C-alpha cells in the first residue's frame, strides 16, 4: 500500500510539472512571431494545400524557434503553436465584431481611443472577460489573407449546407467549390486546372450571389449591433455611480435609437 501511494505521488508530481511546462504563458512578442509565421506559411500554396496539418504546424514551430526575436526562450511544440493560434484567431475574430459595433456608434468629437475603449467594453459585456490580444489584433486587422478567411468562414459553411441539400436535385453543383475562396490554390490543382477547361458562372450570376451574401451579412451585423447596443445600454443604466459626459451622451443616443 505504501509503495502504491509513493508511485501515485511520483506520477502526480511529474504530471503537474509537465502540465506547468505546457501552460507556459505566451508573451506578446511570441504571439507576433507566431502570427507572422502563420500568415507567411499559409500564403504558400504548396505548404497550405499540399501538406498535412501536422507538417504545416511543424514548419511553423520551426520558424518560431528560429526567430531571432525569441533567442534564449524555450522552444514551442507544434501542438502548442496550433493551440495558441486557435485562441488568438478566435479572440481576435470576436473583437473585430466589437470594434465594428463601436465604430458605428462613434459620434463627432470622439477619438480613436474612445472607440477602442468602447470596443473593449462591448467585448467584456459580451464575453465576461477582458480582451488581452490587442497586439494580435493590430497585426491581423489589415492582413488581406486573414481578413478574407475570417469573413468567408460563415459563407463557406452555409454554402456547404446548401450544396448538400440540393445535391440530390441538381447535377450542376460542384461540392467544395467555395473551399478554394478561403485558401490559395495548390500546385497540383493549378496544373489540373490548366489542363482542362472548367465552366465558370457568368458575371451576372456572380453579382447576384455577391449581393445575396452581402444582404445576409448586413442583416447579421444589424442583429449583432442591436444586441450589443442593448447590453451596453443595460450596463450604463445599471451603474450606480454618476456617469461621465461621454457615457451620458452614449446613453442618450442608445435610448433614442431603441425608441426610434
Enumerate the spans where pLDDT stays under 50 for 5 or more consecutive residues. 15-19, 170-182
- Net shape: flat
According to DSSP, the number of beta strands is 0
Report the end-to-end length measured between terminal Cα atoms. Answer: 74 Å
What is the helix content? over 70%
One letter per element, helices H and strands E, the order comes to: HHHHHHHHHHH
Question: What is the strand and helix layout of this fold?
Answer:
Elements: H1 2-22, H2 28-42, H3 45-50, H4 53-66, H5 78-104, H6 112-127, H7 134-140, H8 144-166, H9 187-195, H10 203-238, H11 245-259
List keywords for this structure.
11 helices; mainly alpha; 260 residues; single chain
Polypeptide structure, described:
- By secondary structure, this protein is an all-alpha fold.
- Helices cover 73% and strands 0% of the residues.
- The longest helix has 36 residues, at 203-238.
- The protein starts with a helix and ends with a helix.
- The relative contact order is 0.09.
Brief characterization of the structure:
This protein has 260 residues and is mainly α.
Amino acid at each position: 500500500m505504501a509503495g502504491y501511494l509513493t508511485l501515485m505521488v511520483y506520477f502526480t508530481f511529474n504530471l503537474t510539472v509537465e502540465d506547468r511546462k505546457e501552460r507556459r504563458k505566451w508573451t506578446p512578442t511570441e504571439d507576433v512571431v507566431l502570427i507572422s509565421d502563420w500568415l507567411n506559411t499559409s500564403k504558400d500554396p504548396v505548404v497550405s494545400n499540399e501538406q498535412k496539418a501536422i507538417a504545416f504546424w511543424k514548419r511553423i514551430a520551426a520558424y518560431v524557434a528560429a526567430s531571432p526575436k525569441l533567442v534564449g526562450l524555450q522552444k514551442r511544440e507544434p501542438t502548442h503553436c496550433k493551440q495558441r493560434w486557435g485562441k488568438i484567431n478566435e479572440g481576435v475574430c470576436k473583437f473585430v465584431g466589437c470594434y465594428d459595433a463601436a465604430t458605428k456608434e462613434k459620434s463627432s468629437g470622439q477619438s480613436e481611443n474612445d472607440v477602442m475603449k468602447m470596443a473593449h467594453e462591448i467585448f467584456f459585456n459580451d464575453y465576461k472577460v477582458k480582451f488581452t490580444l490587442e497586439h494580435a489584433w493590430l497585426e491581423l486587422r489589415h492582413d488581406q489573407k486573414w481578413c478574407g478567411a475570417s469573413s468567408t468562414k460563415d459563407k463557406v459553411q452555409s454554402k456547404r449546407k446548401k450544396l448538400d441539400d440540393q445535391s440530390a436535385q441538381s447535377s450542376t453543383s460542384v461540392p467544395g467549390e467555395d473551399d478554394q475562396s478561403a485558401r490559395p490554390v495548390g500546385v497540383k490543382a493549378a496544373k489540373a486546372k490548366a489542363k482542362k477547361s472548367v465552366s465558370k458562372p457568368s458575371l451576372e450570376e456572380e453579382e447576384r450571389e455577391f449581393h445575396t451574401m452581402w444582404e445576409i451579412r448586413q442583416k447579421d451585423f444589424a442583429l449583432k449591433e442591436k444586441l450589443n447596443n442593448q447590453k451596453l445600454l443595460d450596463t450604463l443604466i445599471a451603474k450606480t455611480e454618476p456617469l461621465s459626459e461621454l457615457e451620458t451622451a452614449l446613453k442618450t443616443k442608445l435610448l433614442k435609437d431603441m425608441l426610434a
